[in-house]
Amino acid sequence: EAEVAQSPRYKITEKSQAVAFWCDPISGHATLYWYRQILGQGPELLVQFQDESVVDDSQLPKDRFSAERLKGVDSTLKIQPAELGDSAMYLCASSLTPTFQETQYFGPGTRLLVL
Amino acid sequence: GNSVTQMEGPVTLSEEAFLTINCTYTATGYPSLFWYVQYPGEGLQLLLKATKADDKGSNKGFEATYRKETTSFHLEKGSVQVSDSAVYFCAGGGGGSNYKLTFGKGTLLTVNP
Q1: What is the pLDDT of residues A56-83, one digit of tens each?
Q2: Chain A residues inside the 8 Å CB shell of B104
Q3: pLDDT at A1 > cutoff 80
Q4: Nearest chain A residue to B44, by CA
Q5: Could you give the percent of chain A with pLDDT greater than 90?
Q6: Are strands B107-112 and B101-103 parallel, antiparallel or unpaired?
Q7: SS3 for chain B, per residue?
Q8: Model confidence at B100, in pLDDT bands (50, 70, 90)?
C-alpha cells in the first residue's frame, strides 16, 4: 500500500538554527498539506499545495517558515530561525484532490525538539 | 470558521467495554465529518467518515452517525480491544468554500486487558 514518506523522523536543534523537513506524497496525489501538531492538540494546517502552487498558507508564520513544492511532487518545509515554541510534530498529508470529501493520507511525522 | 469540540480524555476502559467519544461541530453549511486514529509513534489514519446528514460511517467495528439536528458525530464501538488503544481525533472539512480540515484536540483511549 502506498504511503506518505517523511524525513527525518526526529530532529533536535538549538534555538536560532535552521531546520528542514521533507515529504514525499503518495504518487499521483496533487494536493499536499503540512500540519503542525502541538503535544496534546489536534493538527493545525500550516500550508496547502495544489500541484506546485500554494492554495492556503494563512496559518504559516511567514517570517520564519517557508514551504516549497517545486515540481509538484515532493515538498520541503523550512524553519529559520527555530524558536522554542516550534517544538511539535510536523505532519505531511496528501490527497488526490482538494475537495473536502477526499481522504487525506498522513505520513508518520517529524518530531522536532528545539533546545 | 469551522470548529470541532470533542470529549476530553483520557478514557480508560476494560477490554470488551462499550466506547463512546463525543464530538460536536460548528460550521457554515454542511461539512464532511471524519474520525482519525493515531497509534503510538505513527501518523494519523482515517478511521471513518460521513459526507452528509444521516450518513453512518463504519470501520473496524467503530461507527459514527452524522446528526445534523444535534451537530454531532459521536464515535462508538460495542466491544473495545487492547489494540484499540490510541488517540482519536474528530475532524470536519468543507461547508461553503472552505476545504480545510479542522481537528478536535484528540481523546486518548487506553484499553486494559
Answers
A1: 899 999 999 999 998 889 999 999 999 9
A2: 42
A3: no
A4: A106
A5: 83
A6: unpaired
A7: CCEEEECCCCEEEECCCCEEECEEEECCCCCEEEEEEECCCCCEEEEEEECCCCCEEEECCEEEECECCCCECCEEECCCCHHHCEEEEEEEECCCCCCCEEECCCEEEEEEC
A8: confident
Of A56, A103, A108, the CB nearest to B42: A108
Cα–Cα distance for residue pair A64/B4, rounded to 1 Å: 28
Q: B62-76: per-residue pLDDT in tens?
A: 999 999 888 899 999
Question: By CA distance, what is A39's nearest residue in B?
Answer: B105
For residue A13, give the amino acid letter: T
- Count CB-CB contacts under 10 A for residue B110: 14
Contact call for B103 and A43, based on CB within 8 A: yes
Determine the Cα–Cα distance for residues B46 and A47; give it in Å rounded to an integer: 20
pLDDT of residue B8: 85
Query: Given an 8 Å threshold on Cβ–Cβ distance, is B41 in contact with A56?
Result: no
